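User: Fold both of these, please.

Assistant: Here is the first one.
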Amino acid sequence: MLVTERVELLKKGRKGRYVARFRANGMITTKSLRAANLEVARKRARVIDGQFACGTYGRAGPSQEAADDVPVKQYLHAKHHAEKRRPKTIGKYADTLDAFEAWCPMPATRREPSRFALSSPICPLARLAMMILWWSIA
């Protein structure tokens, strides 16, 4: 069954798991979607199609360090532009966030509760806010 013009779903195996079949780099590729539920499989197939549309399928993503800096930069940018904070105040915010990061004994993927893992589709600013709230009540 065709999900999008690039990705096709097939049911395979004894457990009835769905796989996505698509053409990548001139070769037909089959990737397990690890789902027996059709709706879940369709969502995962659409993610693959979205990666094709953006041109990011099969490429390595940004390093974890770069991914951890993005929410901080977005937070500081929002404070500066949306709330019209002065550069001196933004510098103090940056120092506070740096001290917070230095205080945390573990990398970002270990600091957060599992339900707020990096793979969840939560925007980075919300993730940063949840991380700060989680540490403030812990």
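And the second sequence with its predicted structure:
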Amino acid sequence: MLPFYDVQLLCFGAAAVIDTALVLVVFERRNWRRVIMPIVVLLLGAWLYHTGTFVHTLLQDTPGDTATFLHWATMVVIATGLLLLPSAMLHSLLRLRSTGFAVASPREWRYLWCYLPLAGILPVGILLMGDPRGQFMQLVAPLVIPYTAWLVAVNLACAVGFFKLRRSATVYGAQSFLAILAVILILLAAMHALIILIAMPAWPHLHAYLQLALAISPLAIVLLFAYYILRYSFMQLALERTIVYGIILLGAVVAHRFVFRNFHAAWDQRFRFDFAFVEATLLIGLILAYRPLRQRTGEALRYFMGERFERLRRRVRQAALDMSSLAGRPPGEIIAWFEATLKDVFDVRFTSITLLDAGHEESGNAPSHLQHLKSNARPLLDAMANQHINACTRQDAPAGGIDDTLRQTEILLLVALNPPGMAGLIALGPRTSNRS
């Protein structure tokens, strides 16, 4: 079982990694034009809090004057994050009440009063200088009760405000987002009040566990925001898959180092050889020995390093951003746009989309030689379902109706769509450059 110190580092490190990913997302040039400022400040507050907590915990037993200064500096960073979080939440409520989620709105300097509590960072810094190696909550004990009262009041007020605003929200996904956010804020307010005012004084031996729960509690709001970006492209924000993969890899590396830290220390002491080289050799050997993994690795390297794939990534990324602005358009218009976009993105001779829904058919402007596909869309979908395949090419199409249709229509790729309450087919023709 991991020591509690390692559990703390894992939790704080994971929270800091997630915050870092979202901060990178909102600061991307194409996203910066779509996000409202109080959300940026809210994410920065969470990032400062979790990153400062992680570094402060990591330096807990580090000796020296430099480490002492870093202890004090990280606690100031933690305090800054704590002051920013409720201030930015209050700013978000007032901003949404005034202009909604509209980004192109004039700056309103009147909202600066929301950040007046940041003036308290000076007395907090002075209090922390009393014992830079001490416990944060003990050093700021005179301010804990006033801060808790302010935090709980802001959370409850914002919960009520967001819940009322949900009906007037027009951004896709905003109504459910605001409703869930209101519930989370109420739960957080109750949790903070119970832990700080009741649990900590009553059970001082559980102080470390309760403080861990308090530290990771803002992650609930951050994860909600991240989910809505991934699931609904909330506020038309685009989350780069590369960032997601990088964050997952970074989190796995950090977790690996902490989980196997004691084993690595024993290995190094016995063999005087870094175990990381052994792990790297085993990983490379596994990739070379297992053919599917070798193929996937080769595909990934070509995908991330090939110039042709880089152009394709840029086209797909731009198409995804453009598609997020089509919400509420008529189905026929969306299908026509999607067909033209697919043809341009994948550089193919033709594209075709057919959607079937309970006796109703919606299709784009199919070329004349694809009418066979349009008239046989339902049998093709049933055949693909019976074969348990979602996509196929002329090379791997099962013999029978599917294979015959692909060869008659020169379709290179056929994809089955199965969203709830609807079914459909996407067909792509050969590449214009004669490369499959």
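The CA atoms of residues 348 and 435 lie 10 Å apart.
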